[in-house]
Amino acid sequence: MTVHTIYVYVSIEALIKEIKGQVEVDFLYNIHELEKNGKVSVRMSQATVEEILNEAFKHKSLDYVWQNEVIVIRAVGQA
Question: Engineering a disulfide at 14: which of 10, 27, 56, 66 sits with its beta carbon 3.0 to 4.6 angstroms away?
């Protein structure tokens, strides 16, 4: 799944909405964890969802895992 866009200084929730608008993927997350991590800047073109999330979360206390066709975003260290 490839996303074609550039995101500059947006909330993580806005980033997720933009991704969902371009590819068929579902996310599961705790909004409070996203808000605690502030905004992100991602400057990519023709990138995969994984590449975008890796870049977005590089300096954040979040990670993600695929579970049954859903991307689960969680605080680092949570199972």
Answer: 10
CA distance 47 to 1: 8
CA dihedral 66, 69, 44, 61 (to 10 degrees): -30
**For residues 65 and 56, what is the distance between their CA atoms, to the nearest angstrom?**
14
- Mean pLDDT across the stretch 44-62? 93
CA 21 to chain centre: 13
Three-class SS state of 56: helix
**Taking residues 24-52, what's their average pLDDT?**
93
Give the tokens for residue 73. Answer: 């975003």
pTM of the model: 0.87
CA separation for the pair 48, 1 (Å, rounded): 6
> Mind listing the pLDDT tens digit for each residue in 26-35?
999 999 999 9
| Amino acid symbol at 76 | V
